[in-house]
Structure formats: C-alpha cells, structure tokens
Amino acid sequence: MLFLLFQVGHDRFAIEASRVVEVVPLLELKRIPRAPKGVAGLFNYRGRPVPAVDVSELALDKPARECLSTRIIVIHYPDAAGNRRLLGLVAEQATCLLRRERGDFADPSVRIRAAPYLGPVMMDSQGVIQWIHEQRLLADNVRDTLFSELSKLEN
Amino acid sequence: MSNSETNAGDASAVTVSDPFSTPETGARIIDCWNSIGVEGDGSCPQLREVIHCRNCPVYSNAGLQLLERALPPGYRRERTEYFSIQRKPATGSKISVVIFRVGPEWLALPTQAFQEVAEPRPVHSIPHRRHGVLLGLVNIRGELLLCVSMGRLLGVDHNAALEKLRTYHDRLLVVAWDGNRLVFPADEVHGIHRFHAEEAAPPAMTPRNRRAGFTQGVFSWQDKLVGWLEPESLFSTLNRSVM
Fold this sequence. Notes:
The complex is a heterodimer.
Chain A: E1 2-8, E2 11-16, E3 20-25, E4 39-45, E5 48-54, H1 55-60, E6 71-78, E7 84-99, E8 118-124, E9 127-132, H2 140-154
Chain B: H1 2-6, H2 32-35, H3 47-50, H4 57-65, H5 75-84, E1 95-102, E2 105-110, E3 114-118, E4 134-140, E5 143-148, H6 150-154, E6 171-177, E7 180-186, E8 188-195, E9 215-221, E10 224-229, H7 231-241
C-alpha cells in the first residue's frame, strides 16, 4: 500500500494514497465566518467550491504554517447521505510517499474519543507514523455544516 | 540576506546561493554533494552504496528542506488561478496508429498490427502471379513471408510523376492480423501517432474510391490528411487475394 505522509506539529501521519484525489499547493482560501474550529475556508478546485479543513488546527488548535511544503490534499469525503464530496485537507509537509503493508502497522492501544480518525501506528528510524482514517476526520456536525451549505451553493 | 552573512565563515554550509537558504526554519543545508559527492572529489563513503548522490537520502532531504521556505509573493494567487480552471474531462482513450506513405497517400493502421519495420530487400516474385496484389516472397529473419502491394489493393496510383516523391525512406512493413503475417512495402514510415477518435472525420465515399471500403476515417496530421484504414476488412481481403 502506498501512503501519503504529512505532519501535524512535529508528528508524522499517513493517509492511504488511493484515497487522495490530488495534492494541490496552498491555494487562497475564502474564510467562512463563524465556521467551526478547523475549517480553513473554501477554495476553487477546478471550478467547484470545495471546503478545506486545516488538520493542524483540528488537532493542535494551531493553523498550518504558510510555506511551500504545506499543501492541500484533496480527498473524497462522504456527506450525511453517503454521497461522495470533495474535501481539502491543509497539511504541513505533504511531500513524501511511503510504501508499507497493512501488517507493518500496529494497534497503538490508545483510543482518544475526541479523535476517532487516529488509526494504527508504524515505527521507522525517524519515529512513529500514525495512520489517519480520513473518513472520520470531521465530527458529524462539522461535516453537515460544510456539505449542507455547499449543496445549497451548487443547486 | 542575513542568513548568508551568518554562514559566511562556515565552509561546509552554503553561503551564497539564495535558494539554499531557509530563513524560516534557520536550517542550513550542507551541500556535501559539492564537496565529497559526485560534484566534489567523490570521497564520500556512502557513494559505494548509493552510486550517485541523487540516490542518497541526505540529498533528497536537502531537497525537501527547500520546500520549507515561505510562499513567494503572488504564489498563492497564481496557483489559485491555475487550479480554478475546469479541467477538460478526458474523452476516451487515444488510438495508436503507425503512419506510413504508399505512393502519394498517407495511411495509418493500428499499431498492434505491426511487428517490424524492415530495411528494403529483394522480393522474389512467384511465376504466374505477377499482376495481382501479391508481389512475391520476402525473407524476414529467415522466414519467407508473403509480400503484398498495399498500393494495388487500395488503387493508389504509382505513376512516374510520383517517383519524384521518392525520398529513399522506403521500408518493408511486417504486419500480423489474426495470426496471418504479411509484408508490404511503404515509401515512407513516419512511426507511431496517437489521436482521439473524435479527431477523425468519416471517409469520402466516392464510387471510384476503392480505399473507402477499407477506410474508417480520415484525420489530419502535420497538415496532411491520413487515411485511417480498418484492419479487419483490409487484412481479410488481403489474405483472400493472395490465396
């Protein structure tokens, strides 16, 4: 399996590369006033409005640094009705791919209820990499806010 | 830049070039590839393992550090404009053909029909079979294959005036379709060309045009019109006519 690595703070995380639609540079984001925590804004992805979530802000309450290695990972995300929507993840150091098997990851034996997206972990010489279940990144109310607003926009 | 000044006395660090400095992180990039690597004296012990610096993790990590710079002014705006343009949906897969010339006509057949482009060589004619589509036998890698005339089959004129078009690029094309191998001479072979089916127009249907039956379309290539031949009927007719 191929994974895309990124960083939150100093820690490394991985999402399955097959779930990634495209990795785009840090584009201009239109802020959404009074949006829930972690929502970085809307961006124009090939003519479509796509919401972006700042993974660093979501996890550490600190927005991602503005530099060339900070990129937007575009993924598919299911809305409440199960339709596939596009979602951008603003992530630091989204620069490396890694090939690992599912068996290389071990259960971390720590479960954080507030972070259901944290998956199994893998160790290499530089430390620990944690698998992110990107389909569980958003709390239900955040997801519904993002996608219900957008469906109004699209219709 | 202040970074280059602080590094001025340090020989191992890059001191002059702007792209190497990463003022945001304060990290200095050690350009070992210029001193002990392939650009330097090649004394790095790692070279025995990685052969070239570009295979070395130190080198790729240095490259990654370049991305730790702040966004250049106008970068976000420019990229935003670029990604706001709707991408043209990919329309089907492309068709791959080999383009060749027979007499004045540029023709194309599916690439998968071709096995070899061979140098011209003598064609041994077969007695009593001198006027049909069959030209004779030709030796391709020790195998005698039937050589046919695409020009005669398609009714492409081969008159003297066209001899001027000869560019001494003539080749023998070895093709195979449905397990039957054949050879035909072409005056010129361009090579492989890929196009979308939508780019091809339907062939001109005239009663005198014998090609029309074998042509599935016409497309333009390098300001020329190329007849896109339909291999199924073409090869079945060829095989029947050489019996």
